[in-house]
Amino acid sequence: MTSITVATPDDWHVHLRDDHMLTAVAPFTANSFRYALVMPNLVPPITSMAMAREYRDRIVAAAGPDARSDFTPLMGLYLNDDLVIEDLLAGVAAGVVFAVKYYPAGATTNSEAGGASLIGYQSVLEAMAEAGIPLLVHAESTDPDIDIFDREAAFLETELTPACDAVPGLTVTVEHISTRSGLDFVAAHDGFAGSITPHHLTCDRSDVLANGLRPDLYCKPVINSREERDALAAAAMSGNPSFFVGTDSAPHPLSHKETGRAKPGIFNAPYALEVIAELFHQNRALDQLESFLSLNGPTHYGLPVADSTITLTRAEPTQTRPEMITTSGGVEVRIFGAEAAALWTIS
Ligand code: NCD
Ligand code: ZN
To answer: Distance, CA 135 to ligand 1 centroid (Å)?
Structure first.
């Protein structure tokens, strides 16, 4: 039996949705994580302090009876023309808004309201640099001439590099890094960071495509090659303080996944910690687990490390874990990671 105790983890990238989906999924995050950096890609997107405050209240109400007492949603605002600089600054000063998220329009789920070009928001970025507000980036080009597996690198080169050059002092998190390009970009920029998901750490594109098409593994940025996966895992397990977990847990109704055009997004919040613990265990890297789950993120964002702990224990599986939830609206959602979850208990 293997057992490890770590400071309570934070999730630096999560989609909690709204209404009955929020009610169904929020408890999984609230039971396991202290901070949850909540993505603003609702329809319509969260673009103001008032919207963020109301959404935060709905999340706290949905967290459920078993929520950790220190569970705290941190709110991101969606960067588009509706975002008003004065409102952003007031939202941050009021402790309601934590960060700003940029989505290239058309890159992913609910990104239609996103931007045509990052540098188009230079005045917002300058205000953010000045105030030290983190910029969270969905780094994926939407150029149809660029191969889908190369779009992270393309975005970093053609969109993020010019924006960072034009606005020195910006604090950037490259979200859900999926390739070595993302790792290298972060390494080349002082003070930048990258979040990495459980699925990009443990799956490659053969898992998605080789043995029957797996819409449950379809997400943006798309899961890439074995080489890229191995590089991500090495970075996560290295203890490098620039990298930390962001689950990118992104629930979709099964009917939107198993259909003609599957929606991108993987619901992994219930078993994210178990999946990551199993990866680290398999690679004899459990001594770096706390850095990736619980230390590097808060340190990057200038927040205290949790003063509570959780203990993860590995034993031979005695029972299988559920692979599906059903919302109060009768909507089924598939969960990622049940196999790893059967090996671990968390207390
Ligand atoms: C996310 C979603 O469903 O909201 N989907 C995904 O594939 N990751 C959006 C995002 O983070 O890209
Ligand atoms: Zn996401």
So the answer is: 17
Matching residue, tokens 């609702």 = 42
d(CA 341, CA 96): 34
Cα–Cα distance between 120 and 213 in angstroms, integer?
38
The ligand whose atoms approach the alpha carbon of 45 most closely is 1
- 161-211 residue pLDDT tens: 999 999 999 999 999 999 999 999 999 999 999 999 999 999 999 999 999
**Which residue, by CA, sits nearest to atom 1 of ligand 1?**
265
Q: CA 257, CA 95: separation in Å to the nearest integer? A: 36
Q: What is the pLDDT of residues 224-250, one digit of tens each?
A: 999 999 999 999 999 999 999 999 999
Catalytic positions, written as ranges: 248
* Summary mean pLDDT of the chain: 97
Q: Are strands 243-245 and 72-78 parallel, antiparallel or unpaired?
A: unpaired
Q: How far is residue 187's CA from residue 185's CA, in Å, rounded to a whole number?
A: 5
- Among protein residues, the one with the nearest Cα to ligand 1's atom 3 is 265
Which residue among 18, 108, 334 is best mutated to probe the pocket of ligand 1, counting the most ligand atoms within 8 A of its Cβ?
A: 108
Cβ-based neighbours of 201, under 8 Å, separated by 6 or more: 229, 232, 233, 236, 275, 276, 279
Q: With bands split at pLDDT 50, 70 and 90, how would you rate the model's confidence at 103? A: very high
Give the distance (Å) from ligand 1 centre to CA of residue 248. Answer: 7
Q: Domain extents for the chain? A: 8-308
Residue 176 Cα to ligand 1 midpoint, Å, equals 10
Q: Which residues line ligand 1 (CB under 6 A)?
A: 15, 41, 108-110, 138, 219-220, 248, 250, 264-265
pLDDT tens-digit map of 118-161: 999 999 999 999 999 999 999 999 999 999 999 999 999 999 99
Instruction: Please give the CATH topology (third level) of the domain spanning 8-308.
Output: TIM Barrel (3.20.20)
